[in-house]
Write a structure and sequence with these properties.
This protein is mostly helical and 188 residues long. The chain is built from six helices and no strands.
Length: 188
């Protein structure tokens, strides 16, 4: 059941991505730079080129989001099957031969309770990646510990903030405020 649900989720996401890509390429971006056609420095070709460039950038960003979501879904499936494959194998062997295979039984006892841990690792993985991307000098373990200790439950990646949540924006603004102040002081 979980495999079917995840496959349907991935299929639906890919289908939606294709629809959105057609939309992005068909309509110009409202956030792309406005270029006046009466401007002597820009021709109509420049306007078209900037519109296509903005559309392609949005397409790439959306595709990356879909790939990250697909990877997360596949990792959740992998965590599920990793924890229950030995339980299923043990039950199949026991049902068919009425023998208890000790090593398979021990693997079942070890992996079944680990599903929560594996789900946690999959869940926190995007946040660890964002911390590593923002601080490349950190080790993976240090980034993992920072992700666990962080009070912000949302990822810090601006691409994940498609709905514009004010709490995330507030956190980002608070982090940037010292840097903005330094730039203002440097100009004075």
């Amino acid at each position: 059941v979980i495999l079917i649900c995840m496959v349907l989720l991935i299929h639906t996401m890919r289908k939606q991505e294709r629809k959105v890509q057609r939309y992005y390429l068909a309509f110009p971006s409202s956030s792309s730079p406005e270029v006046s056609s009466s401007s002597p420095s820009h021709s109509g070709g420049a306007i078209y080129q900037e519109t296509i460039s903005a559309s392609l950038q949005r397409k790439i960003t959306y595709t990356q989001k879909t790939q990250r979501t697909t990877t997360q879904a596949l990792l959740y499936i992998g965590a599920f099957f990793t924890t229950f494959i030995f339980a299923v194998l043990f039950q199949l062997v026991y049902a068919s031969s009425k023998k208890i295979i000790t090593w398979l039984y021990l693997l079942q006892l070890t992996t079944a309770p680990a599903q929560g841990l594996l789900n946690f690792l999959v869940y926190i993985r995007p946040k660890v990646q964002n911390i590593k991307r923002n601080n490349p000098e950190l080790s993976s373990f240090a980034a993992f510990m920072n992700a666990i200790k962080s009070k912000d439950c949302a990822t810090t990646d601006k691409d994940n903030n498609s709905r514009g949540s004010t709490s995330r924006e507030g956190v980002a603004e608070a982090r940037l405020q010292p840097h903005i102040q330094e730039m203002v002081d440097a100009r004075i």
